[in-house]
Every structure is written in C-alpha cells, then in structure tokens.
Write a structure and sequence with these properties.
Length: 276
C-alpha cells in the first residue's frame, strides 16, 4: 500500500510539476492480477484499483490499518469500470457489470473480487474511509443512482451526475461516491468551481482515448496549479483545493468524498474573477 502524507497549501504551491504529481497523482491503479492501494492521510481515505484475472483478490487488514480485517473500522465503495465481475462479502456474491456500484459496510470480515472471464477482467475502482457504524451492504446499478443533469453545450459542460453512495440513495457513515458523464463536445467539469473545507475528494478520469488528456486544476483559488491526467489515473484533492478539469475531448470521471459531513451544498463557490 502506497502512503501519502498531508500537505499544507502554502507548501504545495512551491512544488514543481514532478513534486505535484508525486504527492497527488495516482497513476498505477489497474494492473492485471493485482490489487493496488493508496492510503492518503487526507481524511484517511484509501484509493484502490482491483483487477482480478485467474484468481480472486482479497482485501486484508494489517499494520497500516491497525486492524485484523480491512473493514473492522472502515466502509467502502466500489464501481466497476471494466468487464463483468463479482464482489464476495462473507460468502455472499454481488455481481457487478460495467458501471455497477456496491456499498460495503463496516464489519465485513472476508471481501474478495473476481472477474467473470480472466481474459477480459473487471476493473473495480475502490474507495474506503473510516466508519463508526454498520450499514447494510448494497448493490447500486447505474439506473439505481440518483441522476442530476447540469451544464449546457454553450458552456461546454453538459453532463449527468450519477450519485451512487449518497444520502438520498443509501446510508453510509461518511463516504460519498458517484460518476459524472460528459456529453459529446463537452470538456469542462465543475466550473465555476468551489472548495469544501469539510470534505476532501478524489477524482478518477476514465473512458478516455489513448491520445486524450485532461488538465486537472487544483490548488487554492488564488494559487491554481494543474496536473496532466491520462486514462484511468486518479488525483487526490485536499479540502483547501479547487477541483475542476478540462479535457481535449469528453470523458467520464468517478468522484468520491470523505470528511466532516455529507452535505453537498456545504461548499464555498469561487467566482470566476477570483481565480488566478
């Protein structure tokens, strides 16, 4: 498990491009037959890419978590962006097709991931945060998710937000998770932008052509920086940072948040004239 430490905004704005990428970019998520995890000390979120092939892959406890089992004091969310697969929780199977999601509640003892066909593996994108209460495991399809339509073609940001782990869909301790799909010829997300001091966020960009890029904007509103993102790369966004992006063509991204609350309106909008 890769471990990332928190960074003060005054320190972060002095970073070179290489330093920004080392601290905030997660570039190696999906490797055939492997489970790749990154532990961030920003609200102790864990970001994972799980790509089983011939045999299932299991989440386990250990010294980094200080727990005998992974979900002893944690909850998790999964969205499959690959071929069909299955998540097995304490012997119960939850089949997940492409863009299907799953909430895993605190207290699950044995959790593993399998692909339906090892030649065309599933790609389970995984997020986890600390949990204080047990809520039921639940499968959430794309159709089950709460849908919000935003933006316009004139602003190049027409998009649909699919809220999978959301208070109006299911109960969780703090983890929220969903997927945003941009329409053709739309390239901007979350602009005008904002910060939310009580929640950090992680973005996974995917469904991108090999030659396509997303310029992910980050940093305090008056000290912005950017990271060049490629297909199936994720970025850690601290609570003090804006999080927005513009692509060379349309794309899809999965967002996930943990922190003090789950109130989506608890954010600080940034006026366009205040961005620097």
């Amino acid at each position: 498990m890769d471990v990332r430490h928190p960074i003060h905004p005054d320190h972060s704005k002095t970073f070179s491009t290489d330093q920004l990428r080392r601290e905030y970019l997660i570039s190696q998520l999906f490797t055939p037959g492997q489970l790749n995890l990154t532990y961030s000390h920003f609200d102790r979120i864990i970001v994972g890419g799980i790509m089983p092939t011939l045999t299932p892959l299991a989440l386990e406890g250990g010294k980094i978590l200080g727990a005998d089992s992974f979900f002893e004091r944690r909850e998790g969310g999964v969205i499959n962006i690959g071929a069909p697969g299955t998540v097995i929780i304490d012997g119960t199977e939850y089949p997940l097709g492409r863009h299907d999601g799953l909430y895993i509640g605190k207290g699950a003892m044995a959790v593993s991931f399998a692909s339906a066909d090892s030649a065309t593996p599933a790609k389970f994108y995984f997020l986890s945060g600390p949990a204080h209460q047990t809520y039921p495991h639940r499968r959430v399809t794309r159709d089950d998710a709460r849908q919000v339509h935003l933006g316009s073609l004139a602003e190049s940001n027409e998009r649909t937000i699919y809220q999978y782990l959301h208070p109006e869909v299911l109960d969780s301790c703090q983890l929220c998770m969903g997927m945003t799909v941009l329409e053709p010829n739309c390239v901007w997300n979350t602009m005008p932008t904002h910060t939310h001091e009580r929640r950090m966020e992680v973005y996974l960009y995917f469904d991108m052509d090999p030659e396509a890029l997303v310029f992910h904007l980050m940093g305090p509103p008056d000290e912005t920086r950017h990271l060049v993102m490629r297909n199936e790369e994720a970025v850690i966004s601290p609570s003090w940072s804006i999080h927005s992006g513009v692509g060379t063509r349309n794309y899809t991204f999965i967002w996930g948040m943990v922190g003090e609350n789950q109130t989506f309106t608890d954010m600080d909008p940034v006026a366009m004239q205040d961005l620097k």
